[in-house]
């Protein structure tokens, strides 16, 4: 479970990230879960966007993906969301050190 200080730190880090995960009209599918899982394994922190055609809000999507990927929802603002999952197998210089 992330503290509010850690959440704020991760939100700051995510502000410079590119949006790499798009959730469209089909919502959260197996393919979306796999993409999120792979990206979290490689980067620890990912930013996604819920398209207007999606029937779910960013809040709902971030919760669904967090549960499916065993990750922590960092935030959901407007149509964007951020997910975090620690990966201890990453090289030390690529890992995110939480405060």
Describe this structure in words.
By secondary structure, this protein is of the alpha+beta class. It has a single domain, classed as Translation Initiation Factor IF3. The protein has three helices and four strands, in the order H-E-H-E-H-E-E. The longest helix has 14 residues. The chain starts with a helix and ends in a 15-residue tail after the last strand. The model has no long low-confidence stretch (mean pLDDT 95).
Please supply descriptive tags for the structure shown above:
single chain; alpha+beta; 37% helix; globular; 4 strands; 99 residues; Translation Initiation Factor IF3
CATH architecture: 2-Layer Sandwich
Strand neighbour order, sheet with most strands: 1-2-4-3
Number of domains: 1
CATH-defined topology: Translation Initiation Factor IF3
Going by helix content, strand content and strand pairing, the class is alpha+beta
Rg, nearest Å? 13 Å
* CATH class annotation: Alpha Beta
CATH H level, superfamily name: YhbY-like
Instruction: State the assembly state of the protein chains.
Output: single chain
Strand percentage lies at 15-25%
Count of beta strands: 4
Termini separation comes to: 13 Å
Average pLDDT works out at: 95
Shape: globular
Percent helix, as a range, is 25-40%
């Amino acid at each position: 479970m992330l503290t509010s200080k850690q959440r704020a730190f991760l939100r700051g880090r995510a502000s410079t990230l590119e949006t790499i995960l798009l959730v469209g009209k089909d919502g959260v599918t197996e393919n979306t879960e796999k993409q999120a899982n792979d990206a979290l394994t490689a980067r620890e922190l990912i930013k996604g966007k819920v398209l207007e055609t999606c029937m779910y809000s960013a809040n709902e999507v971030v919760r669904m993906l967090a549960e499916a990927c065993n990750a922590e929802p960092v935030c959901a603002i407007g149509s964007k969301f951020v997910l975090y999952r620690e990966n201890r197998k990453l090289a030390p210089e690529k890992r995110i050190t939480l405060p």
